[in-house]
Amino acid sequence: MTKRQKRMAAVVLLLVGLSVAAVLGFTAFSKNMMYFQTPSDIAAGKLPEGARIRLGGLVEKGSVQRGDGLLVNFSVADCEARLPVRYEGILPDLFREGQGIVATGHMDGRTFVADEVLAKHDENYMPPELAEKLVTPDGKHSCEQFKSMGAKA
Amino acid sequence: MGGYGLYVWGSFGCGLAVLAWNALSPRLARRALMRQMTESE
Amino acid sequence: MSSWTWFHRLASPPSFFRLADRLAPWLGWIALALLAYGWINGLFFAPEDYQQKDAYRIIYVHVPAAALSLSLYVGMAVAGFVALVWRMKLAESALIAIAPVGASFTALALVTGMLWGKPMWGAYWVWDARLTSELVLLFLYFGVIGLWQAFEDPRAAARACALLAVVGVINVPIVKYSVDWWNSLHQGSTILKMGKPSITAAMAWPLFASVIGSYLFAGYVILRRLQNELLQREAGTAWVRELMGKSRV
């Protein structure tokens, strides 16, 4: 091997080694890379009671009930399961029925008590006129952006 | 901008600033470099 | 070996310098025209979005910056690879020329992302996989720039920078696919999505123009920076003296 070939082999080997290490590392810690968990994950009972978690899913159509002041109850669903959520505070502009959200909080019995609610929008952009024509029975938003950890891991 | 003016204009302002910095800094560097090289001759 | 003569000629500093001189103005002006078209249409003439209203217009700054942040890193890593293996000076200079440009667009992607996140998501920043890996990308650019400034000897500095650039390229697919591999608050890719188009034509054309315009603009800036690097490195050589003689007239 010439010196140049040796250098190339060294750099390629280094890169391959680091890539393998990265893949192994991220596969092992895939759970920690998840920003939120879905109602299915919580239904599967993989989480300790009272732990602080993030819940992601779609705000179910017809589930939003406003209470006194800023109190609001709604349920969050992914493609398979749903979970009732209680939240008291200011909601983001995008919050509405059918919208994706990520809520931070903890489980209180069968209800998820949130102290922060963020909106998660999808990657589709279109004018309102077009969006109205596209309404499907399950709303304009897809539950597919909420992957269950069980399915991924 | 429907109440989002600050965010939208802020973003385009930052974009313009980055474009301006990128366009100007090599030009200024070239000028300084040329001056420095003529002086050292 | 004769097929390689064009390559060696291109890699020689004086001929590359002249080529850059001819190419750069074209890149610059076309970039400016495309960016002006894209941004003016994006700001004033594209329809508003059904869910994000006018706030989505940040896409015309954010997406080109984010795309560039990744592409420029790949370009820098390729230059680093060539510099490490072939010890080519032009590749070393290219690496140093790309780093600050890439860093500036990465910072722009992060800042516009924050300005978009606050009104839409409800938070400037979250530590999800996409945002965190993009921040790591910025630090990698800073690392390359810092290493370059830390060494006295430019060749040793270039070698250290090249190694960091090449190793850091592992972060690029992580940024790109973070939204597919893991749950994140950030949405998936709009433009490079398989299947049905996810953006209306009236919104998409200004976006394509801004993206292509930004790429050409980055090309222009990198050529100009590369010319400066070459001048500095080759100061005192015959071709630089000749060039300065011309510029003084």
From TrEMBL, chain A:
Location within or outside the cell: Cell inner membrane; Cell membrane
GO CC aspect terms: plasma membrane
GO molecular function, one term: heme binding
GO biological process terms held by the UniProt record: cytochrome complex assembly; protein-heme linkage
Keyword Metal-binding belongs to the record: yes
Segments in the Extracellular topological domain: 29-153
Pfam families: CcmE
Binding site residues for heme: 121, 125
Top-rank taxon, per record: Bacteria
Topological domains annotated Cytoplasmic: 1-7
Membrane topology of the entry: Single-pass type II membrane protein
PANTHER family, alphabetized: CYTOCHROME C-TYPE BIOGENESIS PROTEIN CCME HOMOLOG, MITOCHONDRIAL
Record family assignment: Belongs to the CcmE/CycJ family.
Function, in words: Heme chaperone required for the biogenesis of c-type cytochromes. Transiently binds heme delivered by CcmC and transfers the heme to apo-cytochromes in a process facilitated by CcmF and CcmH.
Protein name listed in UniProt: Cytochrome c-type biogenesis protein CcmE
Native species: Solimonas fluminis
Organism lineage: Bacteria, Pseudomonadati, Pseudomonadota, Gammaproteobacteria, Nevskiales
TrEMBL record, chain B:
GO biological process: cytochrome complex assembly; heme transport
Record InterPro entries: Haem_export_protD_CcmD
Subcellular location: Cell inner membrane
Keyword Cell membrane set for record: yes
Taxonomy, superkingdom: Bacteria
Record-level GO cellular component terms: plasma membrane
Keyword annotations from UniProtKB, A to Z: Cell inner membrane, Cell membrane, Cytochrome c-type biogenesis, Membrane, Transmembrane, Transmembrane helix, Transport
Predominant location category: membrane
Membrane topology classification: Single-pass membrane protein
TM region(s), chain numbering: 6-24
UniProt record similarity statement: Belongs to the CcmD/CycX/HelD family.
Stated role: Required for the export of heme to the periplasm for the biogenesis of c-type cytochromes.
Protein's recorded name: Heme exporter protein D
From TrEMBL, chain C:
Family, per entry: Belongs to the CcmC/CycZ/HelC family.
Keyword terms of this UniProt record: Cell inner membrane, Cell membrane, Cytochrome c-type biogenesis, Membrane, Transmembrane, Transmembrane helix, Transport
Protein name as annotated: Heme exporter protein C
Secretion signal span: none
Functional note: Required for the export of heme to the periplasm for the biogenesis of c-type cytochromes.
Domain annotation Cytochrome c assembly protein: ranges: 31-186
Single GO cellular component term: plasma membrane
Species: Solimonas fluminis
Subcellular location: Cell inner membrane; Membrane
Membrane topology summary: Multi-pass membrane protein
Matching InterPro entries: Cyt_c_assembly (IPR002541), Cyt_c_biogenesis_CcmC (IPR003557), Cyt_c_biogenesis_CcsA/CcmC (IPR045062)
Transmembrane region(s): 26-46, 58-86, 93-117, 129-148, 199-223
Annotated GO biological process: cytochrome complex assembly
GO MF terms, alphabetically ordered: heme binding; heme transmembrane transporter activity
